[in-house]
Amino acid sequence: MLSVLNMVGNWFKNEPEAGWRFDEIKFDDEAKRAFELLDLDIEVFEHSARVDVSGNNNHCYIPSHYFLYALKLQPLVSLLTLYMDIFRQVKSSTSSAVDFDKLINSSSPSNPVLDALDHYSRDNFFDVFRSDKNRLGGKNIINQDPKKGKKYRSDDDFMCSIILKALPVPDASSSMLGDLIYAFSRNPTAYQTLADKYSAKLPYVFRSSSADDLLFMIILTLALKGKVDSLLGSKSTVRFIGWGSIVDAFLLSKTPVSGNNQYIEKPVHYSTLLNQYVHIKKGLLDTDASIVALSALIAPLWPKMSIIRSGTEIFFRSSILSIGPDFKGATNKIFYGAPGTGKSHRIHTEEYKVAEKIVTVFHPDTQYSDFVGALKPHILKENEGNSGVTYLFRPGPFTNALVKAKAHPDTHICLVIEEINRAPAAAVFGELFQLLDRNTTGESTYKIDAADPDMLTHINDQLRVAGISELKQLEIPANLSILATMNSSDQAVMPLDTAFKRRWSFEYLEINFANSAVPNTLIYIQTANGQFSIEWPKLAQSINDVLIETGVTEDRLIGPFFLSPTELIDSDSAKLVLNSKLFVYLWDDVLRHLGPHKVFSSAYKTFGTLSRAYIQGSAVFSSAIEREVEAKGMKIEVAEASQDAEK
């Protein structure tokens, strides 16, 4: 299928500068032999090459980096090669450049070669050869000579002019670079050698902020390489086609528009066998688990490549890429403190901001199989060769984190466990408990045999895809930290035994209302002496002071972020969230056994009556809280008088 040339070209025209930062590469003897078979008068050295220019005595030395441009632009070059294959057939079916020009610009063109194409490919072919704006501004295939009239431009001149429009390279350097890339397009063996040996030297092949866009780029490129038809089967009556464990990964359509909002609108391929366009499903890369699964499916089609998410960006790059020294010094650490002290915030946006994270949440029903993974039933689809049920290992967050850490030793990977003590943590970790002992580099002091052989098989399958040595025993690498949050005041907590706690470091987050991120939203409180406004930090501290005097432990006090800035966006929102969240916590959790009247008025015997009274504007706090509010807040009449004086 001839995809839209400008779309693929703009993948590279819009590439940020970081995508063009190449390391110097060293050519071994195998690479030299392969590259010296290019259709160039070329001699390849360890870090460069010399090209003699035919027709004169000129020559040019080119750096090894030039070869990486050829590798980077492979999707565009593959698509252009398909265009040129069709062009040569059309050229052979017409008598001259004049006739070709008339055909291309005709309002009702007819040609046996073009008529045999699918409609999408046919329309794209005409677009590219009719207008330079549809070929990135590259040259016309027809060269208008003042003396000889319309003549065909050489294939390499036409193709190179388009390739160079996609590159951020000045004209002074572009001619030989274009010739090199064109020569690779005509020698698949040399191109494959280049890809096999030096893909890891590219920062990445594709990069996008949209996971769907990235997958579209990958599958379209695989289609250009002729590697998608094998996934589709041969039944033209099927509309949806699965891929591995992914149900309905592909949609077949008679038109080049999917017509289904669950699938990407543009086609990635046209199957001549099925006489249908192929569309890829949206959302297939939305989770870490699905990224691992897709990487495994893509690996046989595009070896030693992986899909990696980093922050808001998602990359397709070499799975053996290392952009720096191995990361060392990972740790096991638990952050604990009162609810709302910012434990998760500390992990995600402060201390481990730049690390890549896999996040899970423990709850009372969390088991070892949830954390590590387990065999689960998988219904085979017709296109998978059989029908019925089989079992596949579905990895848990620990297994996914371990695979990612082993595949990317230069990256700090953090497995984040929220609310670790809401589950029986030692039981959830199982035999992994032993791995928590770490040496000075941060890796496991001891390795253990996997209790579940299916888990180890899955891990090694993934590592094999990434080009990483397989594991014989389980370990935690030096770049995999395990971080957790804990609130010991939670009613559902389970104790951590001493042996388990010994393998962790702990950091207590104190209650700190001086944090600039804490909102100073005004809260309106009715007391026996009238209505007062008080800032949220002062109200929370006042309640904490009373709770401390009552004997409430520190981990049950109110943290500065117990109510979020979003919940405290204004006074009206604050009133609602105090009633629905803060009051419930105080009544049901903190004061359950001490009695609510330490904080709330003794006039209210049930939470329901208290809640209604507060919403209606009545005084609901105890006299101790009212005194704090009146001392630290401002009476509404006073505030209004001050505002009038300022006016």
TrEMBL record:
<dbReference type="InterPro" id="IPR052934">
    <property type="entry name" value="Methyl-DNA_Rec/Restrict_Enz"/>
</dbReference>
<dbReference type="Pfam" id="PF07728">
    <property type="entry name" value="AAA_5"/>
</dbReference>
<dbReference type="InterPro" id="IPR027417">
    <property type="entry name" value="P-loop_NTPase"/>
</dbReference>
<protein>
    <recommendedName>
        <fullName>ATPase dynein-related AAA domain-containing protein</fullName>
    </recommendedName>
</protein>
<feature type="domain" description="ATPase dynein-related AAA">
    <location>
        <begin position="334"/>
        <end position="503"/>
    </location>
</feature>
<dbReference type="InterPro" id="IPR011704">
    <property type="entry name" value="ATPase_dyneun-rel_AAA"/>
</dbReference>
